[in-house]
Write a structure and sequence with these properties.
6 helices; ten-stranded mixed β-sheet
Length: about 190
């Protein structure tokens, strides 16, 4: 039986610290989340989503200093700082990151979300992965009801923030020649 709540509470933290995987909001849309530095949780998310094994997940951080834990040099985030916290995901070089995270790309997509409660949670859990709440190729779940239709009791918890229809995913960018190049438009408009 999955735990259901409307808050990122102590039980959610406990589940995440024990390899748990759940459905929770970020600052943009709902995602499937687990500890980024927990290989068991990461591989479980890939199985649940039926996701191609060579596609890395987005990693959410509470502070820029958490990039150190991921093997990413903080300086890479300099271009993103004027958009953080917020719905901007930056692809960073990550040659020292565990292979189960970078999936052979030697890069990581990272974001500092604009959600105080989520950042406070990640101070205690460490960085979390977040990937759209759906099985690969299907529509993104915008509510608990839609997520339960995909995953049922296979998740350890569901955090209900209401219906997030109309919310955009994060804007995905990479640094090219000192500027941000948009890979996927989304919640943040880049003005460079």
């Amino acid at each position: 039986m999955s735990y259901r709540t409307d808050r990122l509470d102590e039980r959610v933290i406990e589940l995440l610290l024990n390899s748990g995987v759940g459905f929770m909001p970020s600052d943009t849309i709902y995602g499937l989340s687990g500890q980024a530095l927990n290989e068991q949780a990461i591989e479980r998310i890939y199985r649940l989503k039926k996701r191609d094994s060579d596609k890395p997940l987005i990693v959410l951080i509470a502070t820029v200093s958490q990039l150190d834990e991921l093997g990413v040099k903080r300086e890479q985030a300099d271009l993103a700082k004027k958009y953080w916290p917020g719905g901007l995901t930056l692809i960073c070089e990550a040659p020292n990151t565990p292979a189960y995270l970078h999936r052979g790309t030697k890069s990581l997509a990272v974001r500092l979300p604009d959600n105080d409660e989520l950042r406070e949670l990640m101070i205690r859990t460490g960085p979390l992965v977040s990937t759209s709440a759906n099985t690969q190729g299907d529509s993104v779940a915008n509510s608990i009801q839609e997520a339960k239709a995909y995953f049922g009791d296979q998740l350890d918890f569901y955090v209900d923030a209401g219906d997030l229809s109309g919310h955009k995913p994060s804007t995905l960018v990479k640094a090219v020649n000192g500027k941000l190049e948009v890979i996927r438009p989304g919640a943040v408009e880049i003005k460079e």
